[in-house]
Amino acid sequence: MSARVFRMGGGDSAGTGGVRFAVIAVVLLVVFLLTNPLKVIPAGHVGVKDFFGIVSKNVLPPGVHLVFPMTRVVRMSTQTQQVKEAAEVPSQEGLTMDLEASLLYRLDPDKAAEIYRTVGRDYEGTVVEPQIRSAIREITASYDAKALYSSEREKIAQEISDQ
Q: Is residue 96 left, alpha or beta, with left meaning phi > 0 and alpha meaning psi from -120 to 50?
């Protein structure tokens, strides 16, 4: 008489549970590394974390950071930027003059997440340039043409800067 033994259910034979765990761990590690969780923020920039449209209030300072996989980190420059503006501006007499101006500005690192959330990455074209254009036109319209080419020029520049 021969006896047959049938195994039913979850018996581990020859340590395959350990091998299965190792394979799963390696697969998870590879997936984790492929999603690039290490983000480098260069000097003069901050990083804004964006996880599927949810923008973090905290910014990442320059350096290497470990972030949650699938989180996009948007780099925003905190270095001094220059905007040059050439415009035809009105004077008090109604004359139109050609004027060139430049503005130096920089993004406040503490406000970077707010700017990204409300304005986007192109804050220069959306906010800075229109504001400088508006300020130049508004201030020059209250002066006569002669003032723009005299010693009052510094006063006009200061008014534009203050606005």
A: beta
Structural domain count, the chain: 1
pTM of this prediction? 0.69
**Do 132 and 103 form a contact (C-beta atoms < 8 A)?**
yes
In a domain, 97, yes or no: yes
How far apart, in whole angstroms, are the C-alpha atoms of residue 98 and residue 151? Answer: 18
Residues 117-161 pLDDT 10s: 999 999 999 999 999 888 888 888 888 888 877 777 788 878 877
CATH number at residue 155: 3.30.479.30
Domain membership of residue 123 (yes or no) is yes
- Integer Cα distance of 8 and 6 in angstroms: 6
Q: Is residue 40 a part of any domain in this protein?
A: no
Q: What is the pLDDT of residues 61-106, one digit of tens each?
A: 999 998 987 889 999 999 999 999 888 888 888 888 888 888 899 9
Domain extent at residue 115 = 81-162
